[in-house]
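ok trying again, last paste got cut off:
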Amino acid sequence: MFLHSLPTANYLTKPKPQNSSISFHTSYSSPTNSSVSFLCKHSNCNGKQEQTQKCRDGLNLNFIRANKLLKDLSTWGIGGPCNYFVQVHNQTQLVSAIRYCHEHSIRFIIIGKGSNCLFDDLGFDGCVILNRIDFLESNEPGIYRVGSGFRFNKLGMQCSNEGFTGLEFAGGIPGTVGGATYMNAGANGQNDGRFQTLNRINLKFGYRTSPFKFMKDLGSIVAVTFQLQPSGSAKRRLQEYLERRRVSQPTGERSAGSVFRNPPNLGIAAAELIEKSGLKGFRVGGAMVSNIHANFFINSGRSTSQDMLDLIAFVKEKVDQKFGVQLKEEVLYVHPYCNDLNPNRDK
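nice, full thing came through this time. structure:
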């Protein structure tokens, strides 16, 4: 996913720290990647193959072989087939899917809405695990425990409409709760199926970043708990956010939200730098800089992954030439042999 916006102090610092928690799988060190010669090659796969695999813990998981197109899992509508595809609906299935991949030396990534990912046209030489852990529990007023696969915009709208403040801005943001917390925390680290809970007081969030990006033992975020405060104006603020998004963003187009982070300490947004470089409407093949919001790149029709990569590189170069500013991507490029969605994990 995914994602136009990550949770920041806007709402994670508002709850009382001792009452906000995030549950996630932990894992131990990643093994050296072994060959996956037993996987079927894209060019040799004919038709959709669905297999029910019995995992070590006795669970049956339905894996689709070689014919699940990643463009159908991405808001950009770009991407070729993956060798394996499986949906998980609870944390037990998630652990089983990860264990199965490790036991069979299959690289994997975990995604939600795919709203922050650029998949390659060649696809992904491994397993894509689609997070459908979408429960919502609210046993006390203002306290919401939400599965990481729950839609972030749906959560924002529900909380605001129930009169609680802190997530009004989420009403117009695509993606999942897990992606909003940390771009869906998909890692290829070996997972031993243990769970751990971190309290908000132990987590330091910043602009477009979270502590999960630097956790080498993180397998996947499972659930997030929010404590929000009552507010009589939450509904009104939600509608203001939705209207602002409607008039300022290409909501009807295939996009991945903001492509670049706003440069720190400059007082100017990435979109303004791109617009002042004269790049609104600029195209590379089927990829185009939006005429509405310059930091949104859209698939205007049959864009390839290379079109989008070339457009991103061109815009970065032009902004650097004109302003001396090196823009940093917010979207994540998933190449066929990607082992980790997080470019910061080893830094």
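cool. The first helix runs from residue 91 to 103. Helices lie at 91-103, 152-161, 177-182, 234-248, 270-276, 305-323.
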